[in-house]
Fold this protein.
Amino acid sequence: MKRFILLAGALCAATAAAASEPRKSKKQEPAPPPLDERPLVDDARVGEEISEACFAFDAGGQTIDGRDNIVVLKTSDGGEAVLQLSGCSFNALMFASSFSAKDGVCASVGDSLVVGGYGDPAQCRIRHINRWRAERAHSLGAGEESGK
């Protein structure tokens, strides 16, 4: 009798599991764009887009907001340019000790930027070049505080 009850219970459980509706898959939200594709237009320090930048002998280089595709370099005219790159790793930019245009001192959109550091140099494709206005961060902050 115990076997019959156990067999009947197992049969009922198997029937209920098989008869239930299949679970609907949740619609997935589209993933946010990768960091490489986020534009820089939301940063007040980004100036007008330029087609070419000529780099200073010691171009320096600083990353912005820890992004692996943005670097600010000194230009030969005494200013700075912000470059949006593709094909670079975060480590290549973070540990970079030198930056140079692949084919000389000046580089245009679509050219390669050679990033030297630990290991082999990396080549990053230049997607956008803009003037960098570091002073805008200070002037905009002062204007907001004084009510201008």
User: Anything to note?
Assistant: The mean pLDDT is 76. Strands lie at 46-49, 52-54, 62-63, 70-74, 80-86, 98-101, 106-108, 112-116, 122-132. The radius of gyration is 28 Å.
